[in-house]
Amino acid sequence: MLWIKALHIIFVVSWFAALFYLPRIFVNLAMLPADSTVERERLLLMARKLYRFGHPLMGLTVLFGGILWLYYGIGGGWLHAKLALAIGLIGYYYYCGRLLREFAGGRNARSHVWYRIFNEIPVLALFAIVILVVVKPF
Ligand code: HEM
Predict the structure, then answer these.
(1) What pTM did the predictor assign?
(2) How far is it, in rounded angstroms, from Cα 41 to Cα 104?
(3) Whose CA is nearest to atom 4 of ligand 1?
């Protein structure tokens, strides 16, 4: 069970690298002057690769978390709250995919300030999830 938990945490950390950095790239894209095409293409390429690479990391986070929950039977009220936040994070990740398509199509209408606030959501979720799973307050 400890090997599965270790793998779960490894993929959680790896997935969070994408969750933290992808919106940061959006902040930079939203700040670019319209004529910075070379820089824009470079940032878009980075974002596409990161978004693609984040999918197996997200999948393996859920797979090993699901084994801990459903195979080893670890659970409780804390896990229900954690699952709601984890599902929220998965939705957040796919929304990043939609925003990436908007940037690629030149349709972004949001400011870099909006993306800076958007970038804080995974931080808050990380605090809440780790407290739920380690402290198990309910
Ligand atoms: C749907 C997705 C997920 C499921 C089903 C799940 C399930 C679980 C379960 C059952 C445990 C074992 C808890 C224990 O042994 O006390 C666990 C451990 C853990 N999970 Fe998840 N998890 C999921 C997603 C996440 C996410 C998104 C994070 C991000 C922070 C996370 C962070 C952790 C950590 C840090 C531990 C180790 C806690 C400890 O050893 O005390 N999990 N997870």
Answers:
(1) 0.92
(2) 9
(3) 65
Length of the chain: 138
Q: Checking phi first, is residue 102 left (phi over 0); if not, alpha (psi -120 to 50) or beta?
A: alpha
Looking at residue 34, its pLDDT comes to 87
Say how many Å lie between the CA of residue 47 and the centre of ligand 1: 27
pLDDT by residue (tens digit) across 78-133? 999 999 999 999 999 999 999 999 999 999 999 999 999 999 999 999 999 999 99
Q: What is the pLDDT averaged over residues 8-35?
A: 97
Nearest CA to ligand 1 atom 22: 65
Can you tell me which residue has the tokens 């978390």? 65
Residue 119 CA to ligand 1 center (angstroms) comes to: 22
The three-class DSSP label of residue 85 is helix
**Nearest CA among 10, 9, 20, 17 for reference residue 121:** 20
CA distance 31 to 114: 11
Structure tokens at 80: 């229900």
Q: What is the DSSP letter of 106?
A: T
